[in-house]
Design a protein that fits this description.
Elements (H helix, E strand, L loop, with lengths): L2 H26 L3 H31 L3 H30 L12 H29 L1
Helix pairs in contact: 1-2, 2-3
């Protein structure tokens, strides 16, 4: 048993631990937004641990260095796509009217929409004032 095998097995166990945390988060969290946040972070870390662990484990067991390059490509793909997919799902849930949990005290998306509306009102007001100035000249 080589060091690479031991490190690979440890990473697989690390990933499995995060999968278990993710499943507990899905059961414990009160609304879709908290569940998605928990599932995305834990599943991403779990997947990375398992995938990279398998690549390192393959180096230790069969001296196959081709596995590590493949697993690193998969890991980069997961790092890029998991957060984006979760954001898209959460935004779709918000736009379709899925309510926040009663205990949620901050709604940044609603605040951002209100700020955007205020900016549009200011732009309209400035546009009307500019038109009035042009008329007076």
């Amino acid at each position: 048993m080589s060091i690479a095998s031991i490190v690979g097995q440890a990473l697989v166990l690390f990933g499995t631990f995060f999968y278990v945390l993710s499943s507990l988060g899905l059961i414990r969290m009160p609304d879709v937004y908290n569940r998605m946040q928990t599932a995305t972070k834990s599943a991403t870390l779990g997947s990375l641990g398992v995938i990279i662990g398998v690549g390192i484990w393959a180096i230790g067991e069969v001296n196959s260095y081709s596995w590590i390059s493949k697993t690193l490509i998969i890991a980069v793909f997961l790092l890029l796509t998991n957060p984006i997919a979760a954001h898209a799902l959460i935004r779709a849930a918000y736009k379709s009217g899925v309510p926040l949990w009663e205990g949620s005290i901050i709604d940044k998306y609603k605040e951002a929409e209100a700020s955007l509306e205020r900016v549009e009102q200011i732009k309209e007001a400035l546009g009307e004032s500019a038109k009035e100035v042009e008329k007076n000249e």
